[in-house]
């Protein structure tokens, strides 16, 4: 890991670079390199993280949704009127599918004071919409400016205040701030053809803050990465975070290794799915990737406008750890209790001639999996009425229910109108279209 970090700092020609790797809730490694001997940064050194600010903003929006204060399908106009783009939905803004322009009008917002854009109209400009809403992914910093304004309108407090009270304090992210706090790195531009540097300005972004204002450390971002994987009931549930990690729209043609959820970037690297975000502002580059299945978070921060690729380095660090130290499975343990009626439902079921296995899992849930070949596997959570709701795969959101005969015995399972019987094409009225009365036969 140190070799990978050292190579990135040298080949990327960056004044300094720091990385950290956390696993299962614990910071397990950090490493830093600097162009000044004896002054390598550590995991407590602040860097500007640019667009890694966006997942923080997205979490605040999802909290409002979970509290019932808004719906993701609500048009922006319902909560934030008079923007001129009020027909786009909150979900479209979160997933960069609203069709908004990527940047605000000139001058370049990342290198100029936010005071130059005092109103949303100054951020959006005269032509804010470039594409039909909901049709394609088009990354938009202005969209996240609107989400910051939405949070302020619904919550009734400034974005920065909501961020601190609802995310930073509960998660203990004491070194994540909107303005730099010592010790922090200075942003530099490195000449592309000579080994000389130029200081970059560190502007307050004003209304654009919710798209890229934050400063943070490798240690704080490692803790945030753990939250993105496992959730924290004080902030967001793991179910909501799974929703955020689901692609919002199909990827662009030819770009099947990456996507975007609700405030989170998604990539496939070496057979692993990583979630997180990259970030950049003049003088700084940042990368945060979480390998949810491996329980590994990697953070890489650098203070150069261009050069190293923190996202690539962070993905490499996840791979290095996962390959060298594969995650040890949790020991098998029996369920603390199980409903006898649920136990009776477990075992083989048939959708037509496809054999499936129904298993009882924790908290009264079930898991349906094909017994051989390809098929649609899903996990289901139990509901108060005794049905189950799909959590992943093809059956996400679909209802699984037990259909009983008049005498109370189980006839079949109904999953979104699909009938599962105890025997393949069981001779009963449960099979849609009926079963040939002559039954099974040979040639």
UniProtKB/TrEMBL annotation:
Residues 6-322 form the Beta-lactamase-related domain. It comes from Streptomyces gobitricini. The keyword Membrane does not apply. This is Serine hydrolase domain-containing protein. Keywords: Hydrolase. Pfam families: Beta-lactamase, DUF7586. GO terms for molecular function: hydrolase activity. InterPro entries: AmpC-like (IPR050491), Beta-lactam-related (IPR001466), Beta-lactam/transpept-like (IPR012338), DUF7586 (IPR056008). Signal peptide: none annotated. Residues 338-422 form the DUF7586 domain. It comes from the Bacteria. The keyword Ribonucleoprotein does not apply.
């Amino acid at each position: 890991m140190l070799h990978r970090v050292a190579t990135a700092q040298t080949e990327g020609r960056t004044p300094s670079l720091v990385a950290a790797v956390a696993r299962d809730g614990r910071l397990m490694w950090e490493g830093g390199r600097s162009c000044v001997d004896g002054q390598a940064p550590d995991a407590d050194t602040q860097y500007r993280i640019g667009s890694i600010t966006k997942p923080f903003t997205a979490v605040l929006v999802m909290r409002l949704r979970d509290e019932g204060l808004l719906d993701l399908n609500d048009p922006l106009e319902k909560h934030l009127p008079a923007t001129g783009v009020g027909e786009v939905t909150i979900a479209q803004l979160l997933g960069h599918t609203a069709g908004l322009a990527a940047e605000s009008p000139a001058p370049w917002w990342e290198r100029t004071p936010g005071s130059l854009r005092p109103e949303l109209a100054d951020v959006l400009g005269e032509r804010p919409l470039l594409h039909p809403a909901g049709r394609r992914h088009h990354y938009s910093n202005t969209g996240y400016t609107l989400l910051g304004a939405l949070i302020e309108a619904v919550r009734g407090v400034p974005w920065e205040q909501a961020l601190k009270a609802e995310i930073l304090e509960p998660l203990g992210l004491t070194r994540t701030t909107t303005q730099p706090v010592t010790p922090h790195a200075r942003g530099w531009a490195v000449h592309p053809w000579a080994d000389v540097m130029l200081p970059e300005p560190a502007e307050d972004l004003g209304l654009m803050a919710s798209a890229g204002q934050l400063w943070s450390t490798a240690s704080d971002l490692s803790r945030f990465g753990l939250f993105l994987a496992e959730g924290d009931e004080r902030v967001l549930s793991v179910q909501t975070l799974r929703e955020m990690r689901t692609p919002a729209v199909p990827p662009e043609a030819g770009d099947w290794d990456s996507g975007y959820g609700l405030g989170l970037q998604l990539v496939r690297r070496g057979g692993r799915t990583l979630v997180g975000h990259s970030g950049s502002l003049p003088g700084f580059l940042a990368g945060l990737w979480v390998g949810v299945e491996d329980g590994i978070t990697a953070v890489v921060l650098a203070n150069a406008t261009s050069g190293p690729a923190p996202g690539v380095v962070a993905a490499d660090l996840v791979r290095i750890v996962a390959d060298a130290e594969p995650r040890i499975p949790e020991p098998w343990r029996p369920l603390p209790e199980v409903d006898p009626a649920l136990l009776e439902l477990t075992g083989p079921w048939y959708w037509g001639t496809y054999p499936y296995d129904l298993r009882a899992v924790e908290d009264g849930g079930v898991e349906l999996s094909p017994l051989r070949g390809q098929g649609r596997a899903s996990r289901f959570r139990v509901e108060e009425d005794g049905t189950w709701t799909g959590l992943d795969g093809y059956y996400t959101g679909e209802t699984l229910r037990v259909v009983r005969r008049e005498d109370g015995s189980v006839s079949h399972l109904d999953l979104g109108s699909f009938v599962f019987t105890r025997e393949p094409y069981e001779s009963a009225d449960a099979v849609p279209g009926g079963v040939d009365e002559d039954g099974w036969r040979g040639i």
